[in-house]
Amino acid sequence: MKNILGSVLLLTGIYATASENYFQNAWDAKGLIGLEGAFGTGQSKLTTDTSTSNAVRVEQSGNNTAFGGGLKLGGESEDYRLFISARYHNVQTYDYVATVGAEMQYLIRAGEHFNIFLGINGGEMGSQITEGAFEYTVWDPYAGADVGVNIDIIDNFGLELGGRVNKAFSDSSVKGSVNFLVEGYVSLVFKFTGEY
User: Fold this and answer.
1) What is the C-alpha separation between 158 and 176, in angstroms, rounded?
2) Cβ-based neighbours of 186, under 8 Å, separated by 6 or more
3) Which residues lie across from 166 on neighbouring strands?
């Protein structure tokens, strides 16, 4: 029992010391929580049965207004930001479109409180559409890119303004899948370090 207790105390001490060193410099590493609002457009892939031969035609239904919001959790070092994220998108003709994934941003520091970022992201995109009495739900992998700026308002709070394109890799014969989403967004980003 003493050995187990000693091991737990030793590991706790090592973890506390590592955490203290990790957050030693303000720019070294910060935990981030982001609340996001977005507005843009989405293109749907709706399939219809074209004849009695059961051939399926893909209809690109054009661009539909999209808006939504989400939550992202991550961290920031001097040159990078990493997030895991979950978003809900309200896209015309769909019951819902949702994304769950991860993203990385490369930061180009243009000042003490301002940077430009270039990012990549990927994950799973889910969508649901209802036609008559039938609901069609689809989950497809997606990948995308984003670009924008981060502005520090105070030490523990900042704004992220950006644009994002997400392309879904969907089977064209599946009813209700999404082709892509293009959005402009604003994130309220709360920052924290080991000092609190």
Assistant:
1) 37
2) 36, 37, 38, 159, 160, 161
3) 144, 181
Judged by DSSP in three states, 23 sits in: coil
**Within 13 Å and on the Cβ side, how many CA atoms surround 180?**
11
Report yes or no: 101 and 142 within 8 Å, Cβ to Cβ.
Answer: yes
pLDDT tens digits for range 9-68: 444 444 444 444 444 444 557 899 999 999 987 776 655 545 444 444 444 455 677 888
Class of domain 28-192: mainly beta
Angle in degrees, CA 124, 122, 74, rounded to 5:
105
Beta bridge partners of 42: 64, 181
Encoded amino acid at 44, one letter:
S
pTM above 0.85, yes or no: no
- Continuous segment of H or E residues that includes residue 9: helix 2-22
- Cβ–Cβ contacts within 10 Å for residue 49, how many? 11
3-state secondary structure of 1: coil
Q: Domain residues of the chain, as ranges? A: 28-192
Q: Any residues with CB less than 8 A from the CB of 145 and at least 6 apart, and which?
A: 118, 119, 120, 121, 164, 165
